[in-house]
Each structure stands twice: as structure tokens, then as C-alpha cells.
Amino acid sequence: MNKVLQYLVKLSLLLVLPAVVACTVSYKFTGASIDYTKVKTISMAQFQNRAPYQWAPMATMLNEALNDAFVQQTKLQQVTRGGDLHLDGEITAYDQFNKSISSDGYSSMVQLKLTVNVRFTNNTNHDEDFERNFSATRDFDASQSLDSVQEDLVTQMIKEIVDAIFNAAVANW
């Protein structure tokens, strides 16, 4: 009986071990799922601020955040034009709205909203191309001036939008 048990253990190891070795799991903590054998470069046009209401540093902040995301989270080489992947677009809206009214009839909360239109082209697989709007909002107390909270809130909204653009463009999961 012992010999039969030993034989079954050895046989099961011989059958299971190759299957375990053959199966690999790949974790990518960046979220990017890029086939680097096909996609090697990315080109990004400078996103312009075309919103009716403007804050001067916003376009630069967005462009730098987009570049940083793709440099830090992918192995793609940035090229000036003709990349395997291409991003372009513009800031289309930057607005503030009264979100809630206090008992005295004045605004108590203000909502700031940023919208970016993005055109993404995957020159190795045009089924993944898209044009879409990405938006983010942040609320602030109406007793604060926009000037006092604007840089922090815009930075937060840009990070949220850049993460969404990155995931839509290269996460594919």
C-alpha cells in the first residue's frame, strides 16, 4: 500500500508540476496593459485651453501631468509626432456653479468643474481609438474665494482626469 501511495504522489507531481510551471500570472501595478512588441512610442499634442472661462496655468498643468503619467507608468518612448499611440485634445469647460443655498438665500457651496475632450488614436489597433470627454468636479465652501482654493482643486481634478485618460487609453481591462 505504501508503494502505491508513493507512486500516486510521484505521478501526480509529474502531472501537476508542468502545469503549474507553464501557468504564469503577470501583475502590472501601473494598470497599463500595453503589448510592447507592437506599441513602442507615444506622441502627445499640447492640449489647449478652449474653455470660455480660463485660468492661465491649467493647460500647462494638464500637459505636464499627462506626460508624467505616460513616462512614469509605461515604457513608451515619447516622440513629437507619428507615435504608435497618439493623444490630443483640449480643455473645453471650466465652470463654477452654486451647489447649495443657505437659509439666508446665499450660496453655501460652490462646485468647480473641469472638462477635457480627448482624441486617442492607437495606430497599431484602430479598434481602440476614441474621442470622449473626461470631467472632474470639486466642491468648496462659498465663504472661500476661488483664488484661495483654485490651484489645489484644479490639481486634484487634473489628477483625476489624467488617471481616467490613462486608464481609457492603455489599461484595457
Which SSEs are present, and which pair or pack?
Elements: H1 2-22, E1 41-44, E2 48-49, H2 58-73, E3 77-79, E4 85-101, E5 107-122, E6 130-141, H3 146-171
Parallel strand pairs: 1-3, 1-4, 2-4
Antiparallel strand pairs: 4-5, 5-6
Helix pairs in contact: 2-3
Write up this protein.
- This protein is an alpha/beta fold and 173 residues long.
- The chain contains three helices and six strands.
- Strands 1, 2, 3, 4, 5 and 6 form a six-stranded mixed beta sheet that branches.
- It is flat and about 90 Å long.
N- and C-termini, Cα separation: 50 Å
What's the order of the H and E elements?
HEEHEEEEH
- Which range best describes the helical content: under 10%, 10-25%, 25-40%, 40-55%, 55-70% or over 70%? 25-40%
Estimate what percentage of residues fall within beta strands: 25-35%
Q: List low-confidence stretches.
A: 20-30
Largest sheet: 6 strands, mixed
Taking all Cα atoms into account, the compactness measure Rg is 25 Å
Can you identify the CATH class? Answer: Alpha Beta
Category by helix and strand content: alpha/beta
Count the domains: 1
